Amino acid sequence: MCHLVPPRWDIPSHRRDNEIVQPTLPEDHVFEAIGEDGFRRLVAAFYRQIPSDDILGPMYPAHDLPGAEARLRDFLIFRFGGPPTYIEQRGHPRLRQRHAPFPVDPLARDRWVALMNNAFAEAALPHDAEQTLRAFFEHVATFLINRQEPQS
Q: What CATH number does residue 112 fall under?
């Protein structure tokens, strides 16, 4: 079984607009709070926006959108206390390595977070679970930046 480093609750996640998003539910309780259906709604709402997005759309091959949706959903379910399907099928997440081929600059990071924020509005998750997920996404989206300048 893969063991991931537990979150550091003493370090707040920072939004780029300087508003602090503080997790309010322990990460390993999110799955219990929203279940597979909550993750399914959130991730589906996110991926419905991708094909028409001018920044993120080109990074996602149309033929692989269903696969990308399933991978994100399964990763989040595992990461937040659900079944380990993602790890069983794909192994350790290696997020930076898996995202290295994609041009993730600050603009792409901000757009990813904006689309996920739209998805939260549609998914209508409990507030405490949403806050914990938002804090995680803010942190990880920044962590995945691999270019400082937009690609031309």
A: 1.10.490.10
97 exposed, middle or buried (CB, 10 Å; 0-12, 13-18, 19+)? exposed
Range of the domain at 137: 27-143
Cβ–Cβ < 8 Å for 142, 11: no
Q: Tell me the C-alpha distance between 23 and 13, whole Å.
A: 8
Buried b (16+ CB within 10 A) or exposed e, 25-57: bebeebbebbeeebbbbbbebbbebbeebebbe
**Which tens digits make up the pLDDT trace of 87-137?**
777 666 666 566 566 778 899 999 999 999 999 999 999 999 999 999 999
68 domain residue, yes or no: yes
For the chain, give the longest Cα–Cα distance. Answer: 43
Residue corresponding to tokens 């990074």: 59
